[in-house]
């Protein structure tokens, strides 16, 4: 035994309660995952489950559990997962799914879905003093549902959490009194949540590329101010996307997606608006899947932000719903003119969480379907994307005129 492992963080309680130690400060930078020496396995004789992650160096980390559904979440600053399929790490009967990826900028995350409630019994990161390589070991043991629920929840820790967002300002109606229309583009998914994955392409990446191009097209057209809910391959929660739109005082919110369909072939762009009752089963399933993506990214949905809840929908009170419908109709028209092609039922609705702003007209555009080979080719083609972007620009310009006219009628 020439290797002597130095245990630097022995127990969780110390990690959660104490300020950064000198050793923790010495950690940092980007660690690479050594997949060959990493695994989640069950211990013999039902003595629980073990998580072993081999990293090229030590990095600050934390672990916690979440309920509904039961999940284990590991955060790092920062781990390069190296394109390793997280399913290959999972050799445990107690874990149903594993997801890895970027969370926020500078954060990496692993989320494991637990088959039964389990508690973290031991956790520690050890460093090899010769190579500097690190090994994280967690031991999980079964626990009862009550104990699990009582312990679950992301720790409030200023070293990891973002500062509280600024209060919501009431947005003034824009784009009609000579000032530019403020557009919030929302490239779907990102980071630990790749969205649809098909033919080596991810929805998250394609929509980030498309959003950047669409932003350029709108800025070149003039009359638009454009922000994006994410500029990189990072995770943003559905509520975080709504907040970003409010913080930017956006006039319209466009969520951009290219999902895959579980069954059947879909062709042509579809524009979705928010409704309590979905227009059809496929739309309901799509909205549900987007909510589930937040769960798989390790989001604690039990801790809803009151401030965000305050800006969520109240369809009966506000005129946002008809304005969103008008926006969706104008976008379908613009896209059909520009690309010659939309879905045979291009206007649909469902309970999409990301569209629940009470005061910002919001739509979700399925630019194309990644699971349809021709659409995948389209989405990869810059010329096709330019046509789609022009269609959305035209749709926004049409809507602006119509909405201003309707606003005049509404005021009478
Ligand atoms: Zn999507």
UniProtKB/TrEMBL annotation:
InterPro entries, A to Z: AMIN_dom (IPR021731), MurNAc-LAA_cat (IPR002508), N-acetylmuramoyl_amidase_3 (IPR050695)
Q: Name one GO cellular component term.
A: outer membrane-bounded periplasmic space
One Pfam family recorded for the sequence:
AMIN
Keyword Hydrolase belongs to the record: yes
Q: Which BP terms in the Gene Ontology apply to this protein?
A: peptidoglycan catabolic process
Q: MurNAc-LAA domain: which residues?
A: 242-397
Gene3D superfamilies named among the record's database cross-references = 2.60.40.3500, Zn-dependent exopeptidases (3.40.630.40)
Q: Which reaction does it catalyse?
A: Hydrolyzes the link between N-acetylmuramoyl residues and L-amino acid residues in certain cell-wall glycopeptides
What does the record give as EC number? 3.5.1.28
> Does the entry feature the keyword Nucleotide-binding, yes or no?
no
* GO MF: N-acetylmuramoyl-L-alanine amidase activity
UniProt keyword terms in alphabetical order: Hydrolase, Signal
Q: Could you say which enzyme class this protein belongs to?
A: hydrolase
Q: Where is the signal peptide?
A: 1-22
This protein is called what? N-acetylmuramoyl-L-alanine amidase
Q: Name the source organism.
A: Roseivivax halotolerans
């Amino acid at each position: 035994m020439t290797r002597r492992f130095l245990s630097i963080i022995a127990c969780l309680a110390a990690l959660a309660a104490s300020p950064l130690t000198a050793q923790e400060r010495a950690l940092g930078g980007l660690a690479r995952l050594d997949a060959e020496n990493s695994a989640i396995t069950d211990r013999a004789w039902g003595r629980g489950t073990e998580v072993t992650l081999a990293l090229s160096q030590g990095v600050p980390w934390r672990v916690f559990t979440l309920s509904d559904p039961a999940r284990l979440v590991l955060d790092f600053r920062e781990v390069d997962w190296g394109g390793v399929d997280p399913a290959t790490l999972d050799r445990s009967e107690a874990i149903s799914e594993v997801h890895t990826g970027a969370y926020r900028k500078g954060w990496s995350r692993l989320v494991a879905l637990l088959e039964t409630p389990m508690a973290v019994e031991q956790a520690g990161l050890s460093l090899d003093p010769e190579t500097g390589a690190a090994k994280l070991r967690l031991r999980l043991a079964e626990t009862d549902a009550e104990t699990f629920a009582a312990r679950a929840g992301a720790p409030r820790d200023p070293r990891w959490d973002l500062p509280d967002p600024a209060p919501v300002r009431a947005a003034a109606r824009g784009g009609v009194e000579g000032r530019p229309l403020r557009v919030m583009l929302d490239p779907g998914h990102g980071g630990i949540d790749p969205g649809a994955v098909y033919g080596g392409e991810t929805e998250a990446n394609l929509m980030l590329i498309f959003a950047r191009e669409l932003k350029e097209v709108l800025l070149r057209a003039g009359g638009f101010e454009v922000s994006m809910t994410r500029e990189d391959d990072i995770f943003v929660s559905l509520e975080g996307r709504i907040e970003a739109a409010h913080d930017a005082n956006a006039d319209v919110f466009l969520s951009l997606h290219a999902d895959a369909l579980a069954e059947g072939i879909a062709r042509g762009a579809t524009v979705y608006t928010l409704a309590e009752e979905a227009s059809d089963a496929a739309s309901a399933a799509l909205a549900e899947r987007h909510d589930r993506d937040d769960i798989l990214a390790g989001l604690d949905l039990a801790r809803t932000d009151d401030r965000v809840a305050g800006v969520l929908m109240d369809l009966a009170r506000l005129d946002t719903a008809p304005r969103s419908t008008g926006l969706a109709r104008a976008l379908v028209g613009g896209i059909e003119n520009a690309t010659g092609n939309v879905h045979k039922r291009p206007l649909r609705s469902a309970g999409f969480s990301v569209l629940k702003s009470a005061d910002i007209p919001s739509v979700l555009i399925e630019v194309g379907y990644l699971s349809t080979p021709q659409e995948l080719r389209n989405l990869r083609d810059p010329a096709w994307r330019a046509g789609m972007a022009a269609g959305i620009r035209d749709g926004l310009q049409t809507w602006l005129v119509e909405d201003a006219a309707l606003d005049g009628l509404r005021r009478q």
